[in-house]
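so my prof wants the structure for this chain in the tokens format not the other one, which i didnt know existed until like an hour ago. anyway here's the sequence
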Amino acid sequence: MVVGAAMGLPVGLLFGLLAFSGREGAVAASALAGAIFGVVVGSLIGGYSTLESPDPGSEPSDTERPLADRPQLTRDEGNPAP
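here's what i got, hopefully its the right format
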């Protein structure tokens, strides 16, 4: 979030200087908007980076034995496939 704000503030300031040259209020608002946008994007990227796949066999399940408790998902090897 800090990096996002540090990157968004100068970008917003530069945009404000180019787009609203001479109007200090608009330039400051643009810089603030850039900082807020940077914080939001930084938070989003930081949140995505904490997501990871669980170890094999540790996946969450809605049943204790996912395949054994659902016979329609498995078949005996002796039975022909439908």
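also thought this was worth mentioning. The first helix runs from residue 2 to 19.
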